[in-house]
Amino acid sequence: MEPFRLTLTIYPLGALLALCAVPCLVLTAYGMNRRCLKAGTAGWFALLCVPLAFLLSRLGYCLMQLDLLIDDWGMLLRVTDGGFLLWGALAGGLLAAWLTGRITGQKSGGIADSAVIPALLLIIVGRVACGFLFKDTGIGLDLESWFAPEETDPALRYSLFAPENYSFFERFPFAVKNYYDEWSWAVFVPEALWAAGIALILWRMKEPRPGGRTTLFLLLYAAGQVVLEALLRGEVLHLPWLNFVRANQILCGVAIVAVWAVCLHGSGVKTWKALAALAQVIAAMGIVVAMEFAAFEKKISFLETVPADVCHLIMLAACAWIVLAILPLWKRKYRDPLPAPDPRPDPVPAPALPAWQPERALPALPAGEPARREKKGKKDKKKKDKKGKKKKK
After folding, report:
1. Backbone phi and psi for residue 323, each to the nearest 5 degrees, phi listed first
2. Where in the chain are the domains?
3. Beta-sheet pairing, 175-177 with 183-185
4. Can you tell me the mean pLDDT for 1-7?
């Protein structure tokens, strides 16, 4: 009888992310301690976040491959084949924060805010690692096709500029070599830099209300990722049965609309302002879609002569418009900074007045009234003393 053997396959990317997840969870626990959350919150969050992020990231990837999943449901369990969705991992983290809040009896917004910056640091590591470990992930078009100096027709070029010598860009961090040993744009570098910029913004900003950091992170990251996703070539995830629609761009749009809806809840924003912001978001998304089809596909006739880099600049301006349209709603709900919690609160707090009994100030006395009342008090005291003496006699 042969002995039972259990084989375990470890990939460099998975091992690197697992090692980096440990200090990120420690940093999350530190953030929860600074926000004076209950003891045990970090433990519950770590216990829930790791499996939920792993499962939902794998499930999200398989759902984006639904046409293949229908024929082979075992694809869900073959995690060693690779394939995870970042937005699924983020959804798992948000679900873990919500469940932790329900278990510990706290607001889930503060729990999620503690994990935002560590999540961005993990995204940075993942982007850079994918760019170096995989030759077809996180890269753009090759430089020769991008500049195409021999082409004189602008409709056949992707760049507004056509230098004869573009060797300056044939180096890291501008470009890396792909499978065909061609220099291609290193899109994973601006992806990592954008995540680092968001982390710096969230770290330097004043503490908003619970949930403010999380919603701002989703808004900024989704808006920037729309443009960066458009630059990617090679292995890109598309929607099932719609190979011309990028899945991550659709998920970024869903995240932006979700942030808009969350900012409306309980903020007291007028209806016409909310609808005006949504109309601006829809208009900007329409521009993004048009530029997406005009950049590389050249499917819009009157935009065929527009180079791809110009289309991407217009797309970037449209995404900035989306952020500016939703930012006032975010400020309305989360802009009031909360006072820093006292790490050593008073063990015997002062009794507070009921909500229905406001504190009232005493009316001011007229001029000369205190002196008159003092004289009257002395006279009353003398009368009482005289009455007491008569009774004794």
Report:
1. -65, -45
2. 12-140+187-334
3. antiparallel
4. 53
Residue with tokens 């009157």: 302
Q: Name the residue among 153, 296, 141, 311 with its Cα closest to residue 233.
A: 141
What's phi and psi for 177, nearest 5 deg? -90, 140
| Angle formed at CA 359 by CA 354 and CA 362, multiple of 5 degrees | 145
What pLDDT, in 10s, does the model give residues 34-93? 988 988 999 999 999 999 999 999 999 999 888 888 888 888 888 877 788 999 999 999
Q: Is the N-terminal amide bond of 328 cis, ω within 30° of 0?
A: no
Q: Please, are residues 186 and 172 in contact by the beta-carbon 8 Å criterion?
A: yes
CA dihedral 36→42→43→48, nearest 10 degrees, is: 140
What does the alpha-carbon distance between residue 372 and residue 111 come to, in Å, rounded to a whole number?
A: 62
Question: Which amino acid belongs to residue 63?
Answer: L
Tell me what the pLDDT averaged over the chain comes to: 84
Which residues, listed in sequence order, are joined to residue 274 by a DSSP beta bridge?
none
State how far the Cα of 69 lies from the Cα of 77, in Å rounded to an integer.
11
